[in-house]
């Protein structure tokens, strides 16, 4: 059955919408294309951990605790070897991890027959400003440095392959290289950082931007 | 404002500088075309409707169809089904015939026959208030002081006795899930005045979501930028509003520019994906909210007298009072639609109605009255429509717990007749409209359907319910669907 579905023409379609498809099937009710979708809450959480190399893949056992901040932000705490997937985080109705809740993890008390996907500013704010996401971007940058070395083009290629599962286009590569250079210059002019520290900060800012990008969050 | 008859959502209005750059930068969906045609040309031409079917969906202010009475809405939604015969709609016959069985007459609406008793008198005392003499029970002593500003409709009815479908109906016009909420329609039609705050704000209760959860404020088939944005009323209203990591502002700016560039490239290769438009818009809003949301929601800016009037800082009003006060601050800043919810089912008084209904009122009555007075003092009530009500009412008969003790009795859901009230922008204060039958069971005189009510709200905002549509599968989808609603002119100023 799975083979039948997965080898079908319908299943293997691209998600691109042409003017014609848009006229004939604007809402994709007839499956004229693969539906583009945003990553689900757990996918966003897990993927950021995975990409940044902080994911502890240990399975089972008691759930990992969460920390509730005074302002109401709920953040999972790390397990001994890192952070585990969201499915292993303690789920308490009154203490849903904020990132999961913001990205539409359903409430626990009522039945959920279909997950809604919202697109709201709170999601952008979380990924842009949250300290944990920043931390993960820095870890991602360190991993890039270890794996791809100091050459910025090699770093960009590696980042795209890891986070987006594809190489960058020439345009994206150039934009990335320029951005890295500019980030580094700002940090150098800003204070007392060494060239190396500045370049690491630059790389983290770039990685953080990629984790915020539509290309990262939307699957098509 | 010139009277305009516009296809769809108000057509194209004068292009602001921001609007122009947004459109020029998008370069999609005939944006250039939208710019080239002037407002006048657009306004009257049916020909253009087809060409503009696919347009840039945004939240810039749109001209209404005609001169509006209200510019903003605060909906105080009382989920659960507040009991009309204990709050707004006194029925002397319930006193006279207390205990008399009418089960045969209303059997179709009794969901739990095993617990159904006879007619039950209200444990609350009714009195007329204000110059208008509007009847209210003693459960709402604060609202009693504002009755001359409100119009009570006593003849509302819903089509289903269960919360979920009834809520879908009142929020989105039909008994089904998945359709756009009233607030989504309003911001789709009118956009919003303040581009730095969400157009449609939802403040749910920190104690829990209403039945149907976030589906209550969804955008359905309307583009996702029109769905409600939840703000929190406990702790920080917006989490992660500011970066937790310090970095030079140039880095932040460059990151933002880089993100916009990469997203535009991504979007350029994926035309017609409304999700991506919405996502890019949400990042823009997030950036602007960082500058203005803290100020808008900071209740420490309010003086002590105001806080006390609303009931901030004391129980049981604190939580609801905060939301009401935030609603005023948001409307003051040009937010179009603010919706306040209370946690699940405080108005669902199946038992001990004397206590449970009084408790619900104790949490909400003072803040609601303070909101009305505050809006009025600031001259905002004229342009702000305040609406209060739930998804249905309750039956006039008793619902008994297993012990059959009348003191512990409540009332079961009653969809055929219930009361709501409206105040402010365009509403004739001191009005009572419509009536239920002599036991308060069903709307009997001048019944107002939910479609009528929706059409009336749209009307006050300068929108015609037939003209506010979204084309889908060759069909003009509307909030009022294929119903033939009537604007309730009798309650308009």
Short précis:
The complex is a heterodimer of chains A (220) and B (493). Chain A is mostly helical and 220 residues long.
- How many structural domains does the protein architecture of chain B include? 2
Regarding quaternary structure, what we see is heterodimer
What is the mean pLDDT of chain B? 87
| CATH 2nd-level architecture of the largest domain in chain B | 3-Layer(aba) Sandwich
Description of the molecule:
- The complex is a heterodimer of chains A (220) and B (493).
- Chain A has 220 residues and is mostly helical.
- Chain A folds into 2 domains: 92 residues, no CATH class; 89 residues.
- Chain A contains 10 helices and 4 strands, in the order ααβαββαααααααβ.
- A two-stranded antiparallel sheet of chain A has the order 1-4. In chain A, strands 2-3 form a two-stranded antiparallel ribbon.
- In chain A, a hairpin with a 5-residue loop joins strand 2 and strand 3.
- The radius of gyration of chain B is 24 Å and the shape is globular.
- In chain B, helix 13 runs parallel beside helix 14.
- Helix content of chain B is 32%, strand content 14%.
- The longest helix of chain B is centred in the last third of the chain and has 25 residues.
- Chain B has 2 domains: 56 residues, no CATH class; 363 residues, 3-Layer(aba) Sandwich (Alkaline Phosphatase, subunit A).
- By secondary structure, chain B is an alpha/beta fold.
- In chain B, the strands form 6 sheets. An 8-stranded mixed sheet of chain B has the order 7-6-8-1-9-13-5-14, sandwiched between helices.
- Chain B contains 15 helices and 18 strands.
- In chain B, a hairpin with a 2-residue loop joins strand 17 and strand 18.
- The interface between A and B is large, with 61 and 61 residues.
